[in-house]
């Protein structure tokens, strides 16, 4: 059963990737070849970067269809009836598929961490330059905001990395209890011990309206250089560990992280969705084939599986909007459809 299930799953996955990659190329090939100097090598490079994303996204669909196809075949050949006549329960009949899907989930997680993350990161950077030569990232950032306690620090431009980072166009908003007390502005800033030396600095007092020259001063003690160099985080382009570290850095910098936390949890719940598919597609395994309702059972199994993907995407979208907590956005559809699949299986077969 497991061998038949895996062969059908990866066969369907291969066909899906082949068709979807061809359709994707129809829309992207023109943009790639618009760039002077691009040709067939660049198209093949795009395929090598895009195919892992398609595989990762449609592997759970393939597991669902592979499950239904396997169980329909067994039902038509009366193999399921023979297994149940031998005293096996519905859960015991499905056990080989569930164990095999656990292996698929492990492979999916490893594939996402080792290949998909790197491919997604490179492809996103390549798209930003309209499929031209990738520039060298020298660490320059513009319009950077960092939170230091109640205070906010705005930097117009940052160059360099680590202790060699240099700040330009600095504005510090000195706040107390949410109310703005003063602003400190300076042209330049460099790393000084655990803080930043800025100057020539001026302080504008909100209450009095007066401006006071401060010369060179040290501010933002405890603010690390990497808090300034953080840019927009692409959750798909980072591994689980790297994304967790980026979320921690963004949190330390006082930036919102709810959407990224949901993406972090989904890096676990996404691959595990393969384990749900045998349970949701199990309705196709049972019932008498000659009763004429086998096709209806297969449609019900597909409907349950696709309903899960719709609910999963909806929950992630609500999590990105802040309507759902990150953990709930990633795991609620998984737990809901696990209970739903168990309820259908127990009510109809156990």
Helical content stands at: 55-70%
Average pLDDT for all residues: 87
Number of strands: 6
Biggest sheet features = 6 strands, antiparallel
- Globular, elongated, flat, extended or rod-shaped: what is the shape? elongated
Number of domains: 2
Strand content: 15-25%
Low-confidence stretches: none
Transmembrane segments: 54-72, 93-111, 294-311, 323-346
Keywords: Cell membrane, Membrane, Transmembrane, Transmembrane helix
Membrane topology: Multi-pass membrane protein
Subcellular location: Cell membrane
Essential attributes:
single chain, 350 residues, 6-stranded antiparallel beta sheet, 9 helices, elongated
Structure description:
- It is found in: Cell membrane.
- The chain crosses the membrane at residues 54-72, 93-111, 294-311, 323-346.
- This protein is α+β, with helices and mostly antiparallel strands.
- The protein folds into two domains: 2-132 and 256-349, no CATH class; 141-229, no CATH class.
- Helix content is 60%, strand content 18%.
- It contains nine helices and six strands.
- The chain has helices at residues 2-34, 40-76, 79-85, 90-128, 225-229, 240-252, 258-280, 294-321, 326-349; strands at residues 141-148, 151-159, 166-176, 179-192, 195-205, 211-219.
- Strands 1-2-3-4-5-6 form a six-stranded antiparallel β-sheet.
- Strand 2 (151-159) and strand 3 form a beta hairpin.
- Helix 1 (2-34) packs antiparallel against helix 2 (40-76).
- The longest helix is centred in the N-terminal third of the chain and has 39 residues, at 90-128.
- The radius of gyration is 27 Å and the shape is elongated.
- The model has no long low-confidence stretch (mean pLDDT 87).
